[in-house]
């Protein structure tokens, strides 16, 4: 049995909390591994914490200032020589979602390039196993928190699809702040073979009420989407669900998008305050859509989907009002112009890294690390679907009902 077969079998047969022990046994037998540790990225994507000692008291490593953190950011393996041993750091990532780092200590004479390649593949196997194991144990979720989450934040993070996602046609990265006390902002995505649906939500209210409102809305949208209902009807059904529960006393702003992967055509419903900025060929533009009513504000609201095309090389950045409306100590709003500068400055970062970089810049503008309001950033890079051999080229010149516009403030639901 080769190392891949043994690793796969060990992970498949291990109990959910025992994945690290299972992989440690395989690496010890095949490579004479000494220490083997799994470090998970925390919710704020600022530190890495060991699974071996989960909990807020765990010693943590900075993602910005440690060898393991640099591997996490670059998503490229690295190794360090320590006398007769070499420590290999490997990204633990599944479909673009960065979970953490696997650190393996090997005798230097056993740490060949071929072995490091095998270890990288095994780390990816571990990432897939972790996503399944989280259904049956809290171990890996506990290892992700350097502080205690509020109940509202716990509800929101359980609702989210992940921090990032990647496939041939696109890559997505997203982040929420304050990560350990987020209230109502949310994002969601889901893909089929032909389409990507992306939802960016700016929740109303604070605490548990905001989290419950977001949970109701996201699950109503998912329920309609999974029934195969068109985008406009998804919004209408979610609107009815929120109105039936709150009778207009609580409502929720949402930007709902449906991407056709083969063509780059996008259907959009703009129901409130989340903003979309487009980086195309070095220029950042705000994209204007017809503003429609937030979900749940009135009974039986009708929604209309608009269209616009995306092109290979485009970067789309979605933000909540906790980003573009945040004020400096002097009272100056961050605004779309400052956001446009931040988008340009981070254009070379991958989507998984870009939101965190912009949120750091936003904290500097705010003058304090903790925001008063939820701040949400979602970054989507569009690559497009390669043209099939001898097939027609993809048409990205469709007429659109939405246009780049001078930067402006968007309507938003009150807090």
UniProtKB/TrEMBL annotation:
It comes from the Bacteria. The keyword Hydrolase applies. Pfam families: SpoIIE (PF07228). Coiled coil: none annotated. Residues 388-415 are annotated as: Disordered. Residues 167-382 form the PPM-type phosphatase domain. Keywords: Hydrolase. Transmembrane segments: none annotated. One of its GO terms (molecular function) is phosphatase activity. InterPro entries: Bact_Sigma-Reg, PPM-type-like_dom_sf, PPM-type_phosphatase-like_dom. PANTHER family: STAGE II SPORULATION PROTEIN E, STAGE II SPORULATION PROTEIN E-RELATED. This is Phosphatase. It comes from Embleya hyalina.
């Amino acid at each position: 049995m080769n190392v891949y077969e043994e690793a796969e079998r060990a992970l498949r047969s291990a109990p959910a909390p025992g994945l690290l022990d299972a992989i440690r046994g395989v690496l010890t037998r095949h490579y004479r591994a000494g220490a083997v540790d799994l470090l998970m990225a925390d919710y704020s994507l600022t530190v890495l914490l060991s699974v071996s000692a989960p909990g807020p008291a765990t010693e943590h490593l900075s993602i910005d200032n440690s060898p393991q953190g640099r591997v996490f950011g670059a998503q490229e393996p690295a190794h360090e020589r320590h006398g007769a041993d070499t420590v290999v750091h490997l990204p633990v990532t599944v479909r673009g979602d960065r979970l953490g780092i696997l650190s393996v200590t090997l005798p230097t004479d056993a740490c060949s390039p071929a072995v490091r390649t095998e270890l990288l593949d095994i780390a990816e196997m571990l990432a897939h196993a972790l996503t399944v194991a989280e259904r049956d144990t809290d171990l890996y979720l506990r290892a992700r928190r350097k502080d205690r989450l509020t109940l509202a934040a716990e509800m929101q993070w359980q609702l989210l699809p992940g921090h990032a996602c990647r496939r041939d046609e696109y890559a997505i990265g997203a982040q929420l702040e304050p990560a350990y006390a987020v209230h109502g902002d949310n994002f969601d995505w889901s893909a089929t073979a032909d389409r990507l649906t992306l939802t960016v939500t700016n929740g109303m209210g604070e605490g548990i009420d905001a989290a419950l409102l977001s949970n109701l809305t996201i699950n109503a949208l998912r329920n309609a989407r999974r029934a195969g209902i068109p985008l406009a009807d998804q919004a209408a059904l979610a609107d009815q669900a929120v109105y039936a529960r709150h009778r207009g006393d609580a409502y929720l702003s949402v930007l709902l998008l449906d991407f056709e992967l083969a063509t780059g055509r996008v259907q959009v419903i703009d129901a409130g305050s989340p903003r979309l900025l487009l980086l195309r060929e070095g220029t950042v533009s705000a994209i204007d859509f017809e503003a429609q009513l937030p979900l749940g504000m009135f009974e039986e609201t009708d929604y209309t989907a608009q269209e616009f095309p995306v092109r290979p090389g485009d970067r789309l950045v979605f933000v909540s009002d906790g980003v573009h409306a945040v004020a400096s100590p002097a009272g100056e709003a961050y605004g779309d112009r400052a956001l446009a500068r931040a988008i340009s400055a981070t254009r070379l970062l991958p989507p998984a890294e870009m939101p965190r970089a912009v949120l750091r810049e936003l904290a500097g503008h705010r003058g304090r690390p903790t925001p008063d309001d939820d701040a949400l950033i979602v970054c989507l890079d569009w690559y497009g679907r390669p043209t099939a051999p001898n097939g027609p080229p993809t048409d990205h010149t469709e007429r659109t009902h939405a246009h780049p516009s001078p930067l402006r403030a968007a309507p938003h639901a009150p807090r």
